[in-house]
Amino acid sequence: MNNVSFRDNSGFVFKHNGEIYRQINKVYKDNYEHLISCGLYDELTKSGFLIPHREVNLSGVNASNLYKYIRPEQINFITYPYEWCFSELKDAALLTLKIQKTALKYNMSLKDASAFNIQFRHGKPVFIDTLSFEKYEEKPWTAYGQFCRHFLAPLTLMCYTDITLNKLLITNIDGIPLDLCIKLLPVKAKLSTGVLLHIILHNSSVKNNENTGTIKGNTYFSKLAMESLIDSLEGCIKKLKPPDIKTEWGDYYSNTNYSKNSFKEKENIIKEYVKQITPATICDLGANRGDFSRTAALADCVSECISFDIDPLAVEQNYNLVKQQNGHKILPLILDLTNPTPAIGFANEERNNFLSRFKCDTVLALALIHHLAISNNLPFKNIAEFFARMGKYLIIEFVPKNDSKVQILLSSREDIFQNYTQDNFEEIFSEFYTILDKHPLAESERTIYLMRRK
After folding, report:
1. How far apart are CA 185 and CA 195, in angstroms?
2. Which of 239, 335, 375, 442 could cross-link 308 (Cys pair, CB 3.0–4.6 Å)?
């Protein structure tokens, strides 16, 4: 038994025989029984807001302080808020508030409002922490400060300051400190009623209590006041929008060097390769707005496609398309392949690194190799080894040096890439993979390969 969470005295998540379980401790018994019996669990799971679970007996597993074991519905890929685009984080925030509103109807409340309590399933956010509910008392919302640090602060910074500032959550595991948020916000943001109330005045109140040693304890706070607070936060979140800016890859497909025939043939090649290898899970690296993620996900065999890109606005476009097209198989995420998500938290074990979370049947790496090898000076061997650690199969596009996109990369730097040739690419990748097929792309110098890890 491997305990992978340890901060909550109500229980913890652990892995047993390759599956995820949650232990419920005796101290949480009354809250858990109320959650199940009052109807809140049924409403939240039926609406898709809360991950469903079943109670289980685990043979050979003993634990002190045990009340129950539950097995939640399994999620293939665990993601974190610093990997989400603006609208993913916004939808996660609104779901948290919606759950709190629903809980109040059943005389319960969220004691936690961490962004890490949200995962994405079937293209939508879902709450995963069954032990975050407690019986309602007429006191200030316990999770208010956490909600502001985990959701309101990063969303406000992304809206008004820089779209990439949710990355601050990597170095602030319990949310972005409100005083830091205030320092980074422009004056126009501070004039917003929501920012003034829930960030500036809230932060002043917290600091004042710390300086005076005041402890509010169970100060009376009516349910009506609680509902008004949730409505105010909801209105504040809904008003926030991603900035209207241009990024390097945000309009990639309006400036591509593909002909219509090449683009269509590329789609057909991917369809054929996916049909041939029948993967259940795919990781599309450098997916931009996810056009070829959608192509791959059309196959009945594919249950999930994680669609990565470094550009936050490209990922934003991808996620909006997922919502518009009911693309439940696709999950867009932000990823810098040259600096993937690290392991963080106590002993570097609370939030896992990228490679430990994203193992898949097939890796898609289309129009990517030249960015890694030339823009970032990564040797073919390192790239091949990295891809091989992720999945059994690889569908990869080789972009030769005479391609116009590569020439743009070389226009501002010395060409020191004598080894960037197709023959060398094949030779080095063959150390890690068996090349099953290669297909030159029509009206292009590019070639698409299907490989199987050795």
Report:
1. 10
2. 335
Contact criterion met (CB below 8 Å) for 397 and 448: yes
Lookup: tokens for 236: 């504040």
Q: What are the helix (H) ranges across 166-245?
A: 168-171, 178-184, 187-190, 193-195, 202-212, 223-239
**360-365 sheet: strands from edge to edge:** 330-334, 304-309, 281-285, 360-365, 391-398, 447-453, 433-440
Nearest Cα residue to 22 out of 49, 1, 40:
1
Q: What local confidence, expressed as pLDDT, does residue 6 receive?
A: 66
CA dihedral 163, 168, 174, 178 (to 10 degrees): -70
The band of 115, judged by pLDDT with boundaries at 50, 70 and 90, is: very high
3 state DSSP class of 161: coil
pLDDT reported for residue 80:
98
How far is the C-alpha of 148 from the C-alpha of 150, rounded, in Å? 6
pLDDT in tens, 145-201: 999 999 999 999 999 999 999 999 999 999 999 999 999 999 999 999 999 999 999
Alpha carbon distance 316, 326 (integer Å): 15
**Coil, strand or helix at 182:** helix
Q: Cα(451)–Cα(150) distance, rounded to whole angstroms?
A: 41
Alpha carbon separation from 269 to 129, 211, 397, 450 (Å, rounded): 41, 65, 11, 10
Strand ranges for 46-184 from DSSP E:
53-56, 66-72, 108-110, 118-121, 124-127, 133-135
Q: What is the full DSSP assignment across 342-402?
A: PPBSGGG-SB--HHHH--EEEEEE-S-HHIIIIIS---HHHHHHHHHHHEEEEEEEE--TT
* pTM beyond 0.85: yes
**Residue 15 DSSP SS3:** strand
In single-letter form, the type of residue at position 171 comes to T
pLDDT in tens, 355-407: 999 999 999 999 999 999 999 999 999 999 999 999 999 999 999 999 988 88
Position 218 confidence tier, pLDDT thresholds 50, 70, 90: low
How sure is the predictor about 2, in pLDDT bands with cuts at 50, 70 and 90? very low
Distances from the Cα of 118 to the Cαs of 298, 392, 402, in angstroms?
A: 26, 29, 45
Q: Residue 166: which of 92, 96, 113, 252 has the closest Cα? A: 92
Instruction: Yes or no: say if 363 and 393 are a contact pair by the CB < 8 Å rule.
Output: yes
Percentage with pLDDT > 90 across the chain: 81
